[in-house]
Design brief:
This protein is α+β, with helices and mostly antiparallel strands. It has one domain: q2cbj1_9rhob like domain (Jelly Rolls), CATH 2.60.120.620. The chain is built from 3 helices and 11 strands. The chain is globular and about 40 Å long.
Length: about 200
């Protein structure tokens, strides 16, 4: 990755708090990760909300399916290595104290969505930065599935889930939702975390 892209991420998080960055993966790199995700489709399970004792399935809030990543899987290594470089850069430039990336592959079958929410669990502040890396080739606006990010001024930004695009935002700052997808929608989604205090 070009150093300017990492600088753009740090500058955006220090300022407006979010960025959508096309080309984090090339189309070929995104296609390879998507193919590997599809090979593991049977291992995906319904996504829940909440953590530990508060975890539950609620199709009225979210209807996607996820597969938590094995960080030793060679097919995922390119994306994970680039994201590790983002983590190191954020620690170096913004002193965020990020110690790990918690992430999963996510698939939204046709008609699926995720209602408006924030990526901080109740009484926990370990998730600091949210990342979403899209894997969808030839995505068109009419396919839906946009990430709607609710901004500080009360407006919102709809982000197209196009292959290779990386979205990064502060986990505790922005409510967001996934609008209903009208075709199958794939991503790698995760959170840079700090240690629990």
């Amino acid at each position: 990755m070009h150093a300017d892209l990492y600088t753009a991420i740090a500058d955006a998080l220090a300022g407006q708090g979010w960025i959508a960055l096309p080309g984090f993966l090339s189309e070929a790199e995104a296609a390879a990760l998507l193919a590997h995700a599809r090979e593991r489709r049977e291992g995906f399970s319904r996504a829940g909300i909440g953590r530990e004792g508060l975890h539950q399935l609620n199709a009225a809030i979210r209807s996607d399916e996820v597969l938590w990543l094995d960080k030793e899987d060679a097919a995922d290594q390119l994306a994970l290595m680039r994201l590790e470089a983002v983590r190191e850069m954020l620690n170096r430039d913004l002193y965020l104290g990020l110690v790990e990336l918690e992430c999963h592959l996510a698939v939204y079958p046709e008609g699926s969505f995720y209602a408006r929410h924030i990526d901080q669990h109740r009484n926990q502040d370990t998730r600091v930065v949210t990342i979403v890396l899209y894997l969808n080739p030839d995505w068109q606006p009419e396919h839906g599935g946009q990430l709607r990010l609710y901004l500080d001024d009360g407006s919102h930004q709809d982000i197209q889930p196009e292959a290779g695009k990386l979205v990064v935002f502060m986990s505790d700052r922005f409510e967001h939702e996934v609008l209903p997808a009208r075709r199958e929608r794939w991503s790698l989604t995760g959170w840079f975390r700090r240690r629990k205090l």
